[in-house]
Amino acid sequence: AQSVTQPDIHITVSEGASLELRCNYSYGATPYLFWYVQSPGQGLQLLLKYFSGDTLVQGIKGFEAEFKRSQSSFNLRKPSVHWSDAAEYFCAVGHTGGGNKLTFGTGTQLKVEL
Amino acid sequence: DAGVTQSPTHLIKTRGQHVTLRCSPISGHKSVSWYQQVLGQGPQFIFQYYEKEERGRGNFPDRFSARQFPNYSSELNVNALLLGDSALYLCASSSGTGGYEQYFGPGTRLTVT
CA–CA separation, A57 vs A108, rounded Å? Predict the structure, then answer.
């Protein structure tokens, strides 16, 4: 069965420092991959997606992610974190069987120290 | 353009009661999916509807049901509420089915007492 693992439950970085959030997936075929961000009490905002092609994808708010098939990973990165990036980040895998079902990881809570 | 809207924002119900949650997708989007997010966890897929037909169902009991209307809005119904149904219920819309980007609404916070 498909699954997503986000190994880091909490991450704290200083403002201006670089960020990498880890995501590993288990899926039988080439997956659709997504990163979403959720602020407290809010819905999910799509940061970026990978469907096919270039394995380095750019998203909104200066985020990027790299798909590595050999490692079954889709890590999210940002070169310089801003205090407003503090939120919870979810990695998700979409199923290529024709529906829109997303399987989410358990999330990584990002804290930014000023 | 308006994003995905959900109503109500918050809801408090008693065990055994029934609840109906509503979702309006982004204009032009024909697919609506429902997710349940329990505190501290990632969202769990409940249903997907596309063109008023069910296209996917997650591992939820039959107490959960949904439908989609001709204007593509959707309702999620939960019968015989349990304490464990307390969660944030998220609706997501997309323009198609099969790997399309999904855009989420702000959610309905359901508390069952």
Answer: 20
Report whether pLDDT(A98) > 70: no
Report the distance separating Cα A42 and Cα A59, nearest Å. Answer: 20
Cβ atoms of A24 and A71 closer than 8 Å: yes
Task: Tell whether the model's pLDDT for residue B11 goes beyond 80.
Answer: yes
Examine the pLDDT at A55 and tell me if it is beyond 70. Answer: yes
Mean of per-residue pLDDT scores for chain B: 95
- Residue A55, sorted as left (phi over 0), alpha (psi -120 to 50) or beta, turns out to be alpha
Per CB-CB distance under 8 Å, the chain A contacts of B103 are 46
Any B CB within 8 A of A39 CB: no
The residues with which A56 forms a beta bridge, in sequence order, are A66
| Distance (Å, whole) CA A66 – CA B45 | 25
B97: confidence class by pLDDT, cuts 50, 70, 90: confident
Mean pLDDT of A39-48: 90
Distance CA(A92)–CA(A43), nearest Å, equals 15
Question: Any residues with CB less than 8 A from the CB of A91 and at least 6 apart, and which?
Answer: A4, A6, A21, A23, A25, A33, A34, A35, A74, A76, A104, A105
List chain B residues with CB under 8 Å of A101: 33, 45, 48, 56, 58
- 3-state percent helix, strand, coil for chain A, nearest multiple of 5: 10, 50, 40
A18, A100, B109 from B91: Cα distances, Å: 32, 12, 12
